[in-house]
Amino acid sequence: MNTNPAIENLHTEVLEDLQLADIINLEEIQSLQDLFSDAFGVASIITDPDGTPITNPSNFSRLCNNIIRKTEKGCAHCYQSDAAVGRYSPLGPIVQKCLSGGLWDAGASITVGGKHIANWLVGQIRNEELDEQQMLSYADEIETDRTEFMEALNEIPIMPVVQFQKVANMLFAFANQFSEKAYNNLQLKKEIAERELARKLLEESKEWLAITLQSIGDGVISTDKNGLIVNMNPVAEALCGYTLADAIHKPLTEVFYIINSETKVKVDNPVLKVLENGQVISLANHTILISRDGTEYQISDSAAPIKNREGVITGVVLVFSDVTKKYEAEKKLRDSEWGLKESQKIAGLGSYVLDFKTGLWTSSEIMDSIFGIDATYQKSIKGWLELIHPDWQEKMNQYLTKEVIEKHQRFDIEYKVIRNNDKQEIWVHGLGELSFDKENNLMFMHGTIQDITERKEAENQLRLLSRAVEQSPVTIVITNKDGNIEYANPKFTAITGYTIEEIKGKNPRILKSGNQPKEFYETLWNTILAGKDWTGEFQNKKKNGDSYWESAVISPLINRKGDITFFIAIKEDITEKKKMFEELIEAKEHAEESDKLKTAFLNNISHEIRTPFNGILGFLSLIQDKDLSEDEKSEYIHIINQSADRLMNTINDIVEIAQIQAGQIKLTLEETDINKLVQELFDKFKADVEIKGVQFILNNKLSNTDCIINTDWPKLNEVLNSLIKNAIKFTAIGSIEFSIQKNIDSVIFSIKDTGIGIPKGNQKIIFERFTQATVSRIRQFEGSGLGLSIAKAYVEMLGGKIWVESEEGKGSTFYFTTPYNIRVL
User: Does 167 share its domain with 38?
Assistant: First the structure.
């Protein structure tokens, strides 16, 4: 039987890692397995002790190979069953039903030298007593087709259990005998191989040693027992400045010349020391090798004795390396550590290590200086707590216990201590990182302690300043030199609506209203970039879009070098002041306008009183003339009556507006038929309109059920009379349309004319007292100018509203509403 090539490299008799493939060629065992299966009509496979297949299955049934093992559950059951059937059993085979399909299986554990290395499994046969219902249930369990499962089951060969037991016995004997013989052959072959291997290894060792000496990065020199050089590798040649041909048989000290780097004194021959005590020695780190050309190398080296099999020293091997760069790096590191120590001293930063097992800590000189302690101080947790200010002791004890030790949080806290030597109270900032063992047990804390007393005092002063800034009634904004916001006080948020998080890092241009020109901002920036203060006012925009005015002083902050580092803006919201100022100006203008209007009104009233009064007096004088005819007297009397009516209307308007202003007008509510009122008004004014050649149109959309409202009939009638009269007065051609319609819970009245119209600028003031559309109209059209003001007052008293739509030269439409039910307050 041929063995695997890996056997040639087997160098131990330990069976711990022995595998079946180490002692038997797998192709040959596969062939034997196939023959065995064909001879006895059983399925067969060889696996590792855990059930993992080593060989390919032989004579496996379709049921097992193509159905059960193709399902996830079935395959897992098969592996479990193989491991169980093939479990270690040195006394004989194990025969039992398969844990997967319920067929009969047998297993022979293969044991070599007492070690279980494999299982030879056979089976997949059934006897006459197979429970088909149980097999169907198993088909359902592994989720496979019942019909296909049963068809494959019927293909399984039938064999009596007694006969199958004999097959298993034969398998057990066969498997273990040939495995034991194969192992014995392996041992014999191994012994022969080892001898050959030893010879080869000796040759290879010599060759390898030569190659190693040539390729190793360190210098190597070997000497005989007299200290004469017998071999050198290329690195040694390069460092010493000698070739092997030049150096061979020379004393080591002629070729390998070394001195102490600090004292410059020659170092004793290391080979002599090795030959004297027979032990490995190492030179000091400060050793310099001086090459043949005078070049100096900082080296590290060691020398060891060369012994034969009897332990007799036959020579010395010296190994050394050029550590010049490493030495320089270490020197730089030492210098850096010294610099760090000095920096820590200046910064008041000490270091410590706390051992949680012992509860003791070690500390640097700087930390001892911070705490005011010396080397005799008890550096324990208790000793640390005693250094802490009484107000902080319990808090720090809880912090260390609960947060650091129990929760494994890093140590990071500022606290107050009392120095041990001078009892001075100081603030310190403690930091500490935790380290754990493999079981995650807390072992150490490495950290630093820094004296932050000066910083704390500065922070207190800064806190007072900060509170003053935060509580300032004016906005304070600080930007960097590029103009991006770095700080804004709460007043900024209160005014603009932006939070500090929203505006931090952004440019104040987000507040621009767009109401200042580009030149305005150019002047501002040119001023502050020149190192000067800018003072002025500008209009900004809030987050919600509202505009507001600010009075601002913007100043640059300049460092010691004269560079601008920040800009600070102190701004006051002057929106209300601006508004108040504008209102004062508007009030002044309004007062002036009011004076003009009152003057115009008084002129108008004077005209409206004097004109009819003069007419009455004049025609009364004329009517006394005895020569007048009856027709002339009748005409004069008519004119006197008209003037008297006009005078009475003017007086009534004045009295009525005075009563309205005095709040003396009261409502008298009653059910009113709108349709009746409208029709009466239409009939009343129809002749007056048509006599001017103007069309009078009634457009009533109220039904008989919607026309009844609860209102003050006389006041509603007066409003309609006033609006219709105005339309007649100011309409020379075209039409007047009188419309009424329902709108949910109110009635809408409108009087539309094609008269002279009202200028757009006067449409909002025509309802005010003492105002008319134009002063010139006072002379062109008679009237007190109080009609619309009285109409507006009555409409609002009736719970409605009045408005006008007009275009000058094209006409006007007056609208007003009145509710169906008026609430009297």
Answer: yes
Q: Would 264 be classed as within a structural domain?
A: yes
Indicate if 542 and 496 belong to the same structural domain.
yes
Residue 311: domain span: 217-322
Residue 239 pLDDT greater than 70, yes or no:
yes
With a CB cutoff of 8 Å and minimum separation 6, the contacts of 41 are 59, 125, 157, 159
Residue type, 735: S
Query: 630 burial class (0-12, 13-18, 19+ CB within 10 angstroms)?
Result: exposed
Once rounded to an integer, what is the mean pLDDT over residues 421-429? 93
662, 682, 709: which is the final residue of a domain?
Answer: 662
Note whether residue 196 is domain-resident. no
CA 72 to each of CA 29, 76, 80, 144, 325: distance values in angstroms, whole numbers, following the listed order: 29, 6, 13, 11, 63
Cα separation, 784 vs 647, whole angstroms: 10
pLDDT in tens, 263-286: 888 888 888 888 888 888 877 667
Domains in the chain, number: 6
Give the largest Cα separation in the chain, rounded. 183
Cβ-based neighbour number of residue 661 at 10 Å: 12
Residues 656 and 670 in one domain: no
- 772 and 685, same structural domain? yes
| CATH number, domain with residue 379 | 3.30.450.20
- Quick one: what percent of the chain has pLDDT higher than 70? 82
Asked whether residue 33 falls in the same domain as residue 128, the answer is yes
For the entire predicted model, the pTM comes to 0.30
Burial of 543 (0-12, 13-18, 19+ CB in 10 A): middle
Does pLDDT of 527 surpass 90? yes
What φ, ψ does residue 471 adopt, rounded to 5°? -95, 5
- 576 by Cβ neighbours in 10 Å (0-12 / 13-18 / 19+) ranks as exposed
Query: What CATH number corresponds to the domain at position 50?
Result: 3.30.450
Residue-wise pLDDT tens digits, 145-173 = 888 888 888 888 888 888 888 888 888 88
Coil, strand or helix at 747: strand
Q: What is the CATH number of the domain that holds 588?
A: 1.10.287.130
Q: What is the DSSP string of 155-224?
A: TSPB--HHHHHHHHHHHHHHHHHHHHHHHHHHHHHHHHHHHHHHHHHHHHHHHHHHHHHHH-SSEEEEEE
Task: For residues 203 and 211, give the distance between their C-alpha atoms in angstroms, rounded to a whole number.
Answer: 13
Contacts of 281 (CB under 8 A, 6+ apart): 270, 273, 274, 302, 303
Domain boundary (291, 322, 353) is at 322
SS3 assignment, position 128: coil
Q: Which comes out higher in pLDDT, residue 212 or 443?
A: 443
- The CATH number given to whatever domain includes residue 745 is 3.30.565.10
In-domain check, residue 201: no
The residue length of the chain stands at 825
- Residue 220 pairs in a beta bridge with 319
| Residue the block writes with tokens 């855990």 | 50
Yes or no: say if 287 and 301 are a contact pair by the CB < 8 Å rule. yes
How far is 425 from 417, CA to CA, in rounded Å? 6
Q: In sequence order, what are the residues at sequence separation of 6 or more whose Cβ sits closer than 8 angstroms to the Cβ of residue 414?
A: 427, 428, 429, 430, 452, 456
205 domain-assigned: no
Q: Are residues 15 and 160 in the same domain?
A: yes
Same structural domain, 116 and 170: yes
Chain center to CA of 235: 58
CA–CA separation, 167 and 353 (whole Å): 73
Residues 107 and 182 in one domain: yes
